[in-house]
Every structure is written in C-alpha cells, then in structure tokens.
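Re: that backbone. Tokens:
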C-alpha cells in the first residue's frame, strides 16, 4: 500500500484519497459525508470529493477552533 499523497492538481478525490489528504481514517470521511459535513458529488455509485470542498471543510475547522 502506498502512503504517497495524491497530486495537488487533482480536482476530484475518492473517499480513500481524501482520507489520506486529511490524515483521517476512511470510515471517518464516509461519516462526514453521510452527516453532510463534507460535500461530495455522486456519479452512478461512485462518490468523489472536490478539492475545493476539502479545502472548505479544513477552513471550517480553523474557524471552529478560534
């Protein structure tokens, strides 16, 4: 299993890739998606998370800690 981060110019991330970027567990990412905290797009059965939605989620964490 590779621990390399996905490329930063990537527009869409799988939940597994998003977990690596966020340094969370994959199940945590799925829980955030199910709760509506982390936005995602769905094409067929595939779920993908936009880079901008990952960044927005991280930004929301910063504002909560202040």
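Recovered sequence:
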């Amino acid at each position: 299993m590779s621990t390399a981060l996905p490329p930063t110019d990537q527009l869409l991330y799988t939940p597994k890739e998003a977990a690596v970027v966020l340094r969370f567990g994959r199940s945590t990412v799925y829980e955030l998606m199910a709760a509506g905290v982390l936005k995602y797009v769905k094409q067929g059965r595939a779920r993908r998370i936009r880079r901008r939605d990952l960044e927005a989620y991280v930004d929301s964490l910063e504002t909560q800690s202040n």
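Residues 12-65 form one domain. Helices lie at 15-22, 26-35, 51-65.
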